[in-house]
Amino acid sequence: MAFMDKIKAKAREDVKKVVLPEGTDERVLKAARTATDEEIAHIILTGSREEIEAKAEEFGVSLEGIQIVDPTTSEKKQEYIDLFVELRKHKGMTPEKAKDILKDPVFFGNMMIKDGDADGLVSGAIHSTADTLRPALQIIKTAPGTKLVSGFFVMVVPDCEYGADGVFVFADSGLNENPDPDQLSEIAYSSAASFESLTGEEAKIAMLCYSTKGSAKSELVDKMVEATRLTHQKYPQLLVDGELQLDAAIVPEVAQSKAPGSPVAGQANVLIFPDLNAGNIGYKLVQRLGKAEAYGPLTQGIAKPVNDLSRGCSADDIVGVVAITAVQAQNAEA
What we know:
The protein is an alpha/beta fold and 334 residues long. Helices cover 46% and strands 15% of the residues. The strands form two sheets. Strands 8-7-9-6-5-10 form a six-stranded mixed sheet, sandwiched between helices. A five-stranded parallel sheet has the order 3-2-1-4-11, with helices on both faces.
């Protein structure tokens, strides 16, 4: 069974409520219809009911079985305002400010999650990453024990013998611009957990670099060497190695010559990039030239799943992220 088929089957086992706060976008409406028809999530569209219904009619999308919650008329509006004031009073939040902020469908959707009326949220088709994640960090906050919120992509490469039959986690490919070695170790830890929870397979983590095992010397190499050392020190249960070039990380024949004896080289399925430049370029190269499915940027480290989308996403991409969000919500309750 293909990766996304497995994720959708898992999502159907315990259907979760997923908020889509961009219900005037054609791709989002079509994704909401598909996710509802495939029974992978109970979809909640937040925003102006009048505008959402008008767009659905324009695009020929049925809203049957899809819940619409209008922040301006919701019966929970005052309850959410009061809760938001309580959450943000240390930042000077007032009822007047809260009332205005919670007109925003993304903020309102996050309040639904905080108050237990929804389980996850997917945004980013028309919102920036900052506008998607800022409300989550203010309202839902980080998961217990989390030191760093980070972003990752699930990459599904067709007809690929590498990774987990072509499935990889790429991190951080969406959030942290230039993580230091300690932050990279936290990204590695979170990414391993994300990979294992979504695939059911053991994570094998490669700290990527342009050098393998000292083949070059520079501060950039030292960064990934130190990140590997810290990950071993802090999380000795993880299978991690570095620094490794990409080919040494995933190709067994190259690994034998460049990193013999490595427990990870030639088998890596979780790829940790040195910075956001490399991570973003890497995932887009694989997506566009390798014809891979790219799901994300997904977040790890928030108490409940709130996931971003590339603004170039398709309706099918959104459906995939909704399914992953539903499974993350199941895992958050486990």
